[in-house]
User: Fold this.
Amino acid sequence: MNIDKKIVDDLVANDVSFVTTVPCKQLAGVIEEVEARDEIFHIPSNKEDEGMGLCAGAFMGGKRPCIIMQNTAIGVTINTLATLIQYYRMPLPMLISYRGELREPVACQVEMAVHTKALLAQMNIPTYHFHTQKDAEEFDMILKYTFMCNKPVAILTDANFWGGYGDQ
Amino acid sequence: MIRSEILKEIAPILRPHLVVCNIGLPSQELHMIDDQPTNFYMLGTMGLSSSIGFGLALAQDKTVISIDGDGSVLTNLGTLPTIANNATDNYILMIIDNGSYGSTGDQPTYAGKKTNLTDVARACGCDNVIECRDVDTGKVLQEAIDSKKMTIIVVKCDSGNIKLPVITMDPVVIRDRFMKAVQA
Ligand SMILES: Cc1ncc(C[n+]2csc(CCOP(=O)(O)OP(=O)(O)O)c2C)c(N)n1
Ligand SMILES: [Mg+2]
Assistant:
């Protein structure tokens, strides 16, 4: 099973057609897959709060959005999550690379990793953590849940899920 | 002219279109002058009026006008390259450039000093960027709508505010009403 393809298949099956991304090394494959699909409009954003603004607009225009970003972006988007996505009650699946976990080679990434779950919990954001590829079986249900409850929902995907960092 | 005078003048032009309005006094003024279901009022999230409006324009066919401010565009400058590189002709970004953070008491922004937002928008790759005087806003906006070309309008005007009440409408009501107007 190609995990990038599986994730994007689930997005498409759930009618997600507007995806914004800010890259992470671990997300390269899934971003490439998003870009390749005709069913999805892919719009790279320059900062994740900007991306959430685009997603909010797309949702109000009748499209189902998704943001793909790194966990460091939680630090960038707290205000937007609280005052836009949550305040106006909008659905937003957030597929997040969870840097700074086991197998992480870059020490600085750990500095936001230690805050990631605490911040999401403080924000009352439903949070799922994919550690092995089997965990991705729930992705389809998580998407349905997100668009059922009209909330931002975090899917943290760690290095073990993505198969490590190769030679780095 | 100050922002509230401009909004009063262009309200009839805005009325048939989807409008995303900037946080603070701009939304309060538009709400007071001409409240419409087609208006989306931002109650927070400084900087994202252009992004919300642009996402909306990309997702459906109706004309969308984002009313933004110089301070808010400066805080989300990354929006301009995104807009430039994904142009959609049903989108108009109108930046009311009063050279100040009006809603917080008219502290000066860099747009009122050496930074020229018209040049910034062009340098970011936006094709139709028009700078206009406050008195010409209505004419320029109507022409932009009629042109059916994505346009960035930078309205140079005076800073200054009027006293007016906050918006007490619930955000979910604003959003729901707006989405019904989008679909209508
Ligand atoms: C993150 C953040 N910082 C500061 C503020 C306070 N604030 C609200 S509106 C505003 C001024 C916006 O200025 P501008 O976009 O130029 O609009 P104007 O009121 O001048 O029309 C500021 C600083 C805020 N709401 N959010
Ligand atoms: Mg201003």
Summary: Residues 3-158 of chain A form a domain with the Rossmann fold fold (CATH 3.40.50.970). Chain A touches chain B at residues 18, 41, 43-47, 49-63, 65, 79-80, 82-84, 87-90 (CB under 8 Å).
